[in-house]
Amino acid sequence: PLVLGIETSCDETGVGIVRGHTLLADAVASSVDEHARYGGVVPEVASRAHLEAMVPTIQRALKQAGVSARDLDGIAVTAGPGLAGALLVGVSAAKAYAYALGKPLYGVNHLASHICVDQLEHGALPEPTMALLVSGGHSSLLLAPDITSDVRPLGATIDDAAGEAFDKVARVLGLGFPGGPVIDRYAREGDPEAIAFPRGLSGGRDPIYDFSFSGLKTAVARWVEARRRDGQDVPVADVAASFQEAVVDVLTRKAVRACRDNGVDHLMIGGGVAANSRLRALAEQRCTDAGIRLRVPRPGLCTDNGAMVAALGAEMVARGRAASTLDLPADSSLPVTDVSVPGYAQLPAP
Ligand code: ATP
Ligand code: MG
Ligand code: FE
């Protein structure tokens, strides 16, 4: 099926077009530069940027794919989770196009999309799929028997998300926003064993599949403050490398453990933090050692984009899942277990 996907949950206006597992277009307009001076995404600024970028980005994607909107089999859109005002722009645009073109509308979950995008890279997902989802707002181990309808959380962060920790540590080091890519870069020049930062929830009595990154973030901040107080230079590359190692060590160890415990022979890693070069390398090493096949999309498909939404939409169409009704709501706190949102008209009367 030929499906167009719209993503506006945060600061990326993404429009992707896929045919089944084949990526035809991936157009992204980002407002990240407008947020940088505030040190984080400003919701109102993001919403306005989406509004300006929406139609041109859709047109760019159609042109890139060389298809006509009339040929689409469906229009998919991120219905949540994310920033409410930002989501509304994408959902409204998707409804307008679906209504005007007479195409089915699919409101889908942003997190399931971060997993499903790997079909564009490595073909059909195994069933069940074991996924480590690591992004700006989430860090979870998920087992998905069916990515279009059944996603089960095994564990999640009890405080900060991994990406959030990268962003906060970058701020402490004065490296700007977003923090992930710049810490990744600095860490290449640093020693990952220079400083022994804590590995959260790694004790024998701790929950096996849950994560915690708040203590690590505080430990890094304290370490840096102590150096500054003593008038010493802060070895930015070593701090970045040691912090990053603490994050990816825990993520990969728990993910491999989850695969082993559940008898799953592969691991999918998705979300913005999956773009991290050290996470990719360590996961490859540990999966190889454990006889687990690793599936990670290329970095550009890990961070937010429209292709991932189109990928999940196409899978919904292929499996004959029900479309959403045109009263589809955006849900800023959509749970990971709700892979799609039906719309009010499909809900039973109260
Ligand atoms: P969610 O998907 O949970 O709703 P989000 O959509 O805002 O959150 P993503 O776009 O999936 O998040 O990921 C953004 C996060 O990924 C940011 O925290 C960013 O710092 C982080 N990130 C991006 N590239 C890298 C990298 N190379 N290394 C580490 N982190 C990275
Ligand atoms: Mg982003
Ligand atoms: Fe995301």
Automatic annotation (TrEMBL):
Top EC group: transferase
Pfam families listed in its UniProt record: TsaD
E.C. code: 2.3.1.234
Secretion signal span: none
Span of domain Gcp-like: 23-310
Molecular function GO terms recorded: tRNA N(6)-L-threonylcarbamoyladenine synthase activity
Catalyzed reactions: L-threonylcarbamoyladenylate + adenosine(37) in tRNA = N(6)-L-threonylcarbamoyladenosine(37) in tRNA + AMP + H(+)
InterPro entries the record matches: ATPase_NBD, Gcp-like_dom, KAE1/TsaD, Peptidase_M22_CS, TsaD
Gene3D superfamilies linked: 3.30.420.40
Residues that coordinate or bind Fe cation: 110, 114, 304
Cofactor(s) it depends on: Fe(2+)
Record note on cofactor: Binds 1 Fe(2+) ion per subunit.
UniProt-annotated binding residues for substrate: 133-137, 167, 180, 184, 276
Record localization: Cytoplasm
Record key words, sorted: Acyltransferase, Cytoplasm, Iron, Metal-binding, Transferase, tRNA processing
The family this protein is said to belong to: Belongs to the KAE1 / TsaD family.
UniProt protein name: tRNA N6-adenosine threonylcarbamoyltransferase
Species of the source: Actinacidiphila acidipaludis
